[in-house]
Design brief:
Layout lengths: L2 E2 L34 H8 L1 H4 L5 H9 L12 H14 L1 H8 L7 H15 L9 H14 L2 H9 L9 H20 L1 H13 L2 H24 L10 E9 L4 E9 L4 E4 L8 E12 L2 E10 L6 E8 L8 E7 L2 E4 L5 E9 L2 E9 L3 E5 L12 E5 L4 E3 L2
Antiparallel strand pairs: 1-3, 2-3, 2-13, 2-14, 4-5, 5-6, 6-7, 7-8, 8-9, 9-10, 10-11, 11-14, 12-13
Helix pairs in contact: 1-3, 4-5, 4-6, 4-7, 7-8, 8-10, 9-10, 9-11, 10-11
Length: 391
């Protein structure tokens, strides 16, 4: 069913607005009592504003600055995370004094980050949304303080007329997508959007109502995932929107019951620690397929896996990598997305047998792999609650 895309191709993967949406925060009501794993600072930071448990601010900061993968100058999450802690320090001088107590304890990049957080806290400025980076900062600020102003600044972007300015179009699209993503996760954001929709008119009202419609659809899809399997296919279901990026149209959308998984099995052999089991995929729409290259491991410590969106009769390239957070939680390497995995054992090898999408995420596909920068031809937006049983 072809129709105009509600969100301008939504800049789905291009923006890094979902600093915390990439982390597993599905258990919203259970705030951590201590910081001992990646799940703890993720949940703590995403919902800090709800309880403002100041006791965990310094432990969360120390946990992050001791993570080698996090402590990289080119990590797009680093600066927004600094802004999060700076916002808390600015709001609560006692917490700022605790952060100052870390000075001298660290050297190198961790010491630099602590100093920058202290400096930013003491001369704190809430940014105006003029770049994608500013959107990151504003969401970090909201999660630290719960201040409506941060969210309303993002909503104000929808009032602008981009006039064919591609950078501004990207900003507005990223703002819409971030409002949708955080509106699903945060009831307070949902309520702010409702309030703004009532008081707005014209195209802004239309945009906000479209976002509200998507939020309600996503919340409904999460409820679906908790229902019995009576309304699901043999191998699960996928709720999706398939977009042709270049033509700016929706090719298809809806919920598909997955009744058949196609397999290109490989014969196991030898005593290797890792073996390739085969290519598994299902038909999505027309000649579009979604697939997974299945590997088996002697130890139940799978470090990552890849998903792809391809056209079966066309040479395409697609590869979305998910890396391990813990045994059952994997996060998308590029763009927001968290997947829960379940395992089975076959001929002495552990493999991932089921994937459950914990939030909305995007699979990208392209025809020409030689363009620079990369230009995607299709997006498949997979909604929360979708799940696939590969075997």
């Amino acid at each position: 069913m072809k129709k105009n895309i509600v969100f301008l191709v939504i800049a789905l993967v291009a923006s890094a607005h979902a600093v915390f949406a990439e982390m597993d925060t599905s258990n919203k009501s259970a705030q951590p009592e201590s910081i001992t794993s990646m799940q703890d600072p993720a949940s703590f930071m995403t919902f800090y504003y709800q309880k403002k448990n100041v006791v965990l601010v310094v432990p969360a900061l120390e946990y992050l600055i001791n993570l080698n993968d996090f402590m990289k100058e080119d990590n797009t999450h680093l600066k927004p995370s600094q802004h999060f802690f700076a916002a808390i320090g600015h709001e609560d001088p006692a917490v700022l004094e605790q952060i100052k107590g870390l000075k001298g304890k660290y050297s190198g990049l961790p010491a630099k980050i602590i100093s920058e957080i202290i400096q930013e806290s003491e001369s704190f400025i809430s940014p105006e949304p003029r770049s994608l980076k500013d959107l990151d900062y504003l969401w970090s600020e909201f999660m630290a303080t719960g201040d409506d102003v941060s969210v309303r600044k993002i909503i104000d972007l929808l009032k602008l007329d981009p006039k064919h300015n591609m950078e501004m179009i990207g900003m507005i699209s990223a703002a819409q997508w971030s409002l949708l993503s955080n509106g699903v996760q945060h009831e307070k954001v949902h309520e702010i959007i409702k309030s703004e929709a009532i008081s707005s008119d014209g195209s802004v009202k239309e945009r906000l109502n479209a976002i509200l419609h998507e939020i309600e659809a996503e919340k409904s899809s999460k409820n679906i995932s908790q229902q019995s399997d009576s309304n699901k296919g043999t191998h699960g279901f996928i709720k999706y929107k398939l977009l042709d990026v270049k033509k700016n149209i929706v090719l298809d959308e809806g919920q598909k019951e997955i009744s058949e998984i196609h397999r290109e099995d490989k014969k196991l052999g030898g005593e290797l620690n890792e073996v390739y089991l085969g290519k598994y995929y299902f038909n999505l729409y027309d000649d579009f397929i979604v697939g997974y290259s299945l590997y088996g491991y002697k130890a139940k410590e799978i470090f990552g896996f890849g998903l792809w969106l391809e056209k079966s009769n066309t040479k395409t390239f697609s590869w979305e990598w998910y890396e391990r957070i813990d045994e059952h939680t994997f996060k998308k390497l590029q763009g927001p997305g968290t997947i829960r995995v379940d395992y089975k054992k076959r001929d002495g090898y552990w493999y991932i047998s089921k994937l459950t999408f914990m939030d909305t995420q995007v699979l990208r596909s392209q025809l020409d792999t030689n363009t620079s920068p990369v230009v995607e031809d299709w997006f498949c937006v997979v909604l929360a609650g979708s799940n696939v049983e590969w075997t």
